[in-house]
Amino acid sequence: MSAESRGGWGAFSRLSLWVRSLAGALLAVGAAVLLIDLADWKYWRHDFSLSGRNTLDPAVIDLIEELPEPIVIDVFYRPLLDPYATISNQVTARFLEVARVAMESNRDRIDVRVHDPRDVEETQVRQKELGVSGVNFVLFSTASGSRKARAELYGEIAVVDWGNPTFEGAKYLEGEGIHGAIGPTWRAGSFTPARLSSFRGVEVLATSLLKVSSETSPKVYFTAGSGEPSLEGTENTDLSGLVEALEADGFEVEPWDPSKTPDVPEDCSVLAAIGPTQPFPEGTLERIRDWVAAGGRLIAAPDGAALESGQEGGVGDLLRSYGMIPEPGVVCEPLRGAGGEDVEGDYRCALLNITNEGLSASSPLTAPLRERGRRLDFLLTPALRRGGLDGGAPLLEIVTSSNRAWLDRPVGKGQYDFRRSRNESTGRKALIMEAQLPSGETLANGEIRRGHVLGIASSGFLSNGLIQTNRDFLLNAFNTMDADRHWRIRVSPLPRPESRLDLARSDALHRLSLGLYLVLPLLCALTGLGLVVRRRS
Amino acid sequence: MKGFTIILRRELAGLYFSPVSWFLLAATLLYNGFFFLTMLQASGGEVNLALSAMHQGPLWFLLSFLAPLLTMRMISEEGRSGMLEFLLTAPVTDAAVVLGKLVASTVFLVVAWTSVPLYALLCQFLGAPPDWGQVATQWLGVAFVATLFSGIGLVASAASATPLFAAFLAILANLLLLVLPLATGFVRGPWREGAEWVRDKIDVQAHFQGSFLTGAIDSAHLVFYAAWIGLVVFLAVRLLESKRWAR
After folding, report:
1. A52: helix, coil or strand?
2. Where in chain A is the domain with CATH 3.40.30?
3. Nearest to A532 among B19, B30, B47 (CB)
4. Contact between chains at B230 and A40 (C-beta distance less than 8 A)
5. What is the dihedral of CA A18, A19, A23, A28, to 10 degrees?
6. Measured between beta carbons, which residues in chain A are less than 8 angstroms from residue B233?
7. What is the ipTM of this complex?
8. Contact, A368 vs A398, CB < 8 A?
9. What's the confidence (pLDDT) of residue A392?
10. What is the pLDDT of residues A195-245, one digit of tens each?
11. Are B245 and A54 within 8 A, CB to CB?
């Protein structure tokens, strides 16, 4: 008699039931996956934390809501080693928290990709795709990759006071792309740890979103055709480093050759006249002046050799019209000898490291550098002298040398002795000047867009040779000069929910230990013992 | 519903009148206490940070092991002792049996983890009030995770003939659920996108950390847990049902 005929289950019935159950299970998995996908598509989120740590500032939320296309936030970081591991973890964790909250506020608009620092291959592929390089930075880009904005983790997102590092520590930080760890107050042999001075994660997020979400990228035109340094070349005197930095910051860079198109291009946001070695074509200077008078923004830096030769019709003449008089020569500062004495006659006298002392505290171009302890480098630079500017417009010296500097005059053609002679007086020399013109174009909203000129004493300041040190200043300058880029929106920082027990000075730890190790487990163990006793009795 | 209540009461009584459960609870409290004090000291006395840290490693490790230990006997032992035949012929549905056992196990686990909000209360009395909104969402999240891990334990218990093998299977499944999302990070090339898609569907930790841990409630994360819990309950019911005809 078969099992089935006895009222049991036959092999076929069991098989068909197993198949049905398996199919049911597979369908259930499919349904669960579909449900999870649907829930991600339309969702509701509420912040129940009392501190509001999951809620961004309303201004930033509005900004994210209005993003014209999705934004990808790529975080490229490499944890620092001890003794900087703690600060490095703190900075990274805080920014990742900001990025997470931004993404969670609107998952359709923001995507965050954190690149594992150990996965070098994947990181390199992504960086190549985005056209960037380096570590410890965040890149905001549109999904299509057409617009980008870069923010450095240290110095921009988080301002870190690096304390008093050891010499090896400072060298290590330099190697990690963190400059300025050794400040003027550095003392050899006394280590003090780093600490977070301020955190601007939300502010940088808002600023960067504004940059990448603007419909059109601002255009920077570099004058060309008059012997300017190459925009693509990789020589120390070329400008490819600056161009790459500008493009990574969301600018479009184009050359402008006045001999081909005499007028300044209409879509020009900032015009850069950097180091032409020959005079501009006739009429170009007038056209640039007219463009600036109508509210244009100009960054100009002369070539030292062209100045020395007394060339006319170049950047020198252009700067003179705004009260900035280029003085041929090389600004030098004495070196410190082993015994603390001043040393002259060395070519290194012409390499100037400008620290806080030489950076204006009141200019928006230099104030952020002072806060971050950054320095600027100049090499073989002429000086600028204050002249008169029509209409009483303000003319500011925003970067100057130390008061021990002198302007070294050439001893032969292009030759300097780097020694101070009697007719070369010491004192502060202006290296970068800024002029805001009284005139400008009246915009539709009634505001006047005034002409703005930034004069830099030497074209070498912007070149590949010095871009590593001067990059932040230059990006800040181009952004500030671009009148349409008012990135600095005021936002409140993400709150840090802190509630601290003073473990060192109170008996909190003792009381907690008593409760956690003794009272609670003992109560449970006694209950268990009680049950054992009851069962036995 | 009546069947569910009866099963739930029976299971809860089985758990709370068993000395082993209380010793397990005592061990859990020691474990939680040790980690909380360690985290508190590491964070320089920062209560919210220490409470959040408790919901990272310690929570997942504890639940991965404790839930299988609680659920391993719930179905497989009953099959061995003959109680299951009685249950299957009783006027209760298979779903009520599974749900009753699931809720009982979840309640035990959540009560065990309630020690953490209790620590928050102690800190409040000691003068450092925690973010209670965050504590509440963390606790709710733990309830979801405990339900999911209990469900996995029940599936394993229904699928195995011996409780020990059930516990082994469940622990393995829990650990896989925690490790697999991390492993997807090592996938390269054209499979990467697919691996990321799979990770998004199974990453229980990320869905916990993305909302409950930080004090937010997100419907997408609620649905994620509900879908997985629904799936494991469905599988457990099917496996229990198969006991009728698999003999």
Report:
1. coil
2. 58-208
3. B19
4. no
5. 0
6. none
7. 0.85
8. no
9. 61
10. 777 788 888 888 888 878 776 678 899 999 999 999 988 888 899 989 988
11. no
The larger pLDDT score, comparing residue B239 to residue A497, is at: B239
Task: Give Cα separations from A87 to A118, B53, B221 (angstroms).
Answer: 19, 18, 32
Give the SS3 label for residue A230.
coil
User: Which residues of chain B have a CB within 8 Å of the CB of A3?
Assistant: none
What is the fold, at CATH topology level, of the domain defined by A217-481? Rossmann fold (3.40.50)
CA distance A350 to chain B (A): 49
Q: Which two tokens stand for residue B73?
A: 């006997």
Q: Please report the number of interchain residue pairs, chain A to chain B, with beta-carbon separation below 8 angstroms.
A: 198
Give the distance from CA A174 to its chain's centroid: 16
CA distance A402 to A466: 19
Residues in chain A: 537
Write the residue in A14, A33, A44 that is nearest to B219 by C-beta: A44
Q: Residue B43: which of A497, A521, A161, A197 has the closest Cα?
A: A497
Amino acid A113 reads R
User: What residues contact A340, with CB distance under 8 A and at least 6 apart?
Assistant: none
E strand map for B94-214: none
Q: Are B11 and A516 in contact (CB under 8 A)?
A: no
Tokens describing residue A360: 């204006």
Q: Per CATH, which fold does A58-208 belong to?
A: Glutaredoxin (3.40.30)
Q: Cα angle at B207 between B202 and B212, to 5 degrees? A: 155
In sign, the C-alpha dihedral spanning A518, A523, A525, A526 is positive
CA dist B165 and B169 (Å) reads 6
Phi (first) and psi of residue A354, to 5 degrees: -95, 115
Closest C-alpha to A418, from A327, A329, A332:
A332
- Amino acid in position A423: N
Q: Helix axis angle, B19-42 relative to B57-71, nearest 10°?
A: 170
Q: A342 forms bridges with which residues in the sheet?
A: A336
Closest CA to A350 of A325, A382, A375, A326: A382
Q: Are the C-beta atoms of residues A298 and A288 closer than 8 Å to each other?
A: yes
The pLDDT value given to residue A512: 85
Q: Are A239 and A229 in contact (CB under 8 A)?
A: yes
Kindly report the number of other CB atoms within 10 A of residue A260's CB atom.
Answer: 10
Return the structure tokens found at A326: 């280029």
How far from chain centre, in Å, is Cα B105?
Answer: 8
Closest CA to A502 of B242, B145, B47, B195: B47
In this structure, the number of other CB atoms found within 10 A of the CB of residue B92 comes to 16
User: Do the strands A195-199 and A45-47 form a parallel or antiparallel pair, or are they unpaired?
Assistant: unpaired
- Residue A247's contacts (CB-CB under 8 Å, 6 or more residues apart) are A131, A148, A253
What are the tokens at B117? 């909000």
Write down the pLDDT at residue B227: 95
Backbone phi and psi for residue A28, each to the nearest 5 degrees, phi listed first: -65, -40
B126 touches chain A (CB under 8 A): yes
**Euclidean distance between CA atoms A376 and A240, whole angstroms:** 19
Question: What tens digit of pLDDT does each residue of A292-333 get?
Answer: 988 889 999 999 888 888 888 889 999 998 889 999 899 999
Q: Are B14 and B77 in contact (CB under 8 A)?
A: no
3-state SS, one letter per residue, for A262-302: CCCCCCEEEEEEECCCCCCCCCHHHHHHHHHHCCCEEEEEC
**Taking 60 as the threshold, does the pLDDT of residue A499 lie above it?**
yes
Domain(s) of CATH 3.40.50: residues in chain A: 217-481
Flag the least confident range among A245-259, A470-484, B30-44. Answer: A470-484
Chain A, window 16-45: residues with a beta carbon less than 8 angstroms from a chain B beta carbon: 17-18, 21, 24-25, 28-29, 31-33, 35-36, 38-40, 43-45
